[in-house]
Structures are given as C-alpha cells and as structure tokens.
Amino acid sequence: MSEPLLTIAGLSAGYGAAPVLFDVTLTVNKGEIVALVGSNGAGKTTLLRSISHMITARGSINFAGRELIGLSPEDVFAAGLVQVPEGRQLFPAMSIEENLQMGAFLRRDTAAVARSFEQMYALFPILKDRRRQAAGSLSGGEQQMCAMARALMADPKMLMVDEMSLGLAPVIVDQLLVVLADIRKAGVTVLLVEQDVFAAFSVADRGYVMETGRIVREGPVAELAEDPELRKAYLGVA
Ligand code: ATP
Hints:
- The protein has helices at about 45-50, 75-80, 95-105, 110-125, 125-130, 140-150, 170-185, 195-205, 220-225, 230-235, and strands at about 5-15, 20-30, 35-40, 55-65, 65, 80-85, 160, 190-195, 205-210, 215-220.
- The N and C termini lie far apart (about 35 Å).
- The radius of gyration is 17 Å and the shape is globular.
- The strands form two sheets. The chain has a six-stranded mixed β-sheet with strand order 6-7-8-3-9-10, with helices on both faces. Strands 2-1-4-5 form a four-stranded antiparallel β-sheet.
- The relative contact order is 0.18.
- Helix 7 (about 170-185) runs parallel beside helix 8.
- By secondary structure, it is α/β, with parallel strands linked by helices.
- It binds adenosine-5'-triphosphate.
- Adenosine-5'-triphosphate binds next to strand 2 and helix 1.
- Adenosine-5'-triphosphate (ATP) binds near residues 15, 43 and 45.
C-alpha cells in the first residue's frame, strides 16, 4: 500500500502580482522517486520554492500528516523536507567538510552526525578525498555531489533536487542517478525536478508534467515515456 508523504492540493503561487502556479495537485508517496518535468519557465522551481516556503503559496501542502502552509522555511527544513537548490549554492570559501557540517546544523546528536559523515563519504568517495578543499574550487559534478551530501546531512525524510544534471557530463549524471537510487534505498523519498527527461525517467517511479504553471499529465514513468505527445515534446523522439 502506498502511503502519501507529501500531498499538495490546490496550490497557487507567484512573484508579486505575477501568478506562476495554478491549482497544482501532486502527491509523493513514502519511498518513491517522483520526477517533475516540463519546459523552461513552466514553474517547476517555483513549485519547489513554494514547498520549501522560500515564497508564499496558497492551498495545502501536507507533509507527514502535518499542514505546512503558514510555517517558516526553517520549520519546513526541520520537518525533514530539504531542497538541493538549482545551481548548488554551496558556501564557496568553506571546505567540503564545513559545507556538510552546515547541513547538520540543527542536529544535536554528534555521534549520529559522525555516522552521517561516514555515510556521505561512502556515497561520494571523491568528497572524502577532497574534504579539506574549498567547495568553490570543485568541478561542477563534485559541487553537485557536495550539495546533495549537505542536504542529506540534515537527515531528511524527503529530498527535493532541482536540476541535478544541469551543466554536467552524461557520465557524471549517470553516477548521480545511481546515488539517487541508493538514497531511496536508504529510506529517503525523492522529488526530482529535471529538464533532462530521459535521466529523470530512468530513475523515477512516477512522473508529473508541468506546463505554464499547471500539471498537465501524471502517471508511472513507463506510461508517460510511451505517450506519443510527450515523446515528441520532451524526449525529442517520434
Ligand atoms: P527552468 O527549468 O527554466 O528553471 P522552471 O520550470 O523551473 O524553469 P521557474 O523558474 O519556476 O520555471 O519559473 C516560472 C516563471 O516564474 C517564469 O516565467 C519565470 O520568469 C518566473 N520567475 C521565476 N523566478 C522569479 C522571480 N524571482 N521573480 C519573478 N518571476 C520569477
């Protein structure tokens, strides 16, 4: 039986007077990887920002049985809903280790935090080798790994990853997709926003397609990938 972890209903949001999201409804079940895809400017990042409460939204965002609308971004983070932002947004002058430590800033159990460090270095061995290196001096792929590890250091129930593959070589994207599958195995639910639909669908269970601020399609990725319209629009194949 699938158990919803994140349930969004009738959500609208925008920037100032400009509306961007209209009546968005989306569910992520516990243990799932869900892909949210759509063209440039469709509103995917805006939806993640609404869920993280970086911007104000109207409607309902229920997470682990609790209504989040009205809470602060800090409360949402503390509830276990953590975003890996587009563009990584690391602290460039800080080392990898210090960036990871920042992710764990709310945790008081130092033994558990030490275990999380070991888990992150097992998941991303390159980060262990370079742990004293400034995050700003890492390659794009290493920065993405560091951003994902920093988010995981919060011990989240759910990770929201925005444009993980942006600007990265296919071989690095493949490595990160394997890591996402490992993260899910470790019990973390994932909402993945991607323009690389092939990559997203290769790892996700279900997908949602967003166009101009509205969800226009949803279903198991195997079904969506067979849909002739979507294949033409997003996969570039007939
Ligand atoms: P992309 O994949 O290109 O990032 P997206 O689907 O994530 O696209 P959003 O970044 O959510 O789309 O943008 C949706 C709309 O909101 C766009 O029209 C964009 O111009 C607008 N928008 C995004 N951020 C802001 C902002 N800070 N202020 C005003 N408008 C914004």
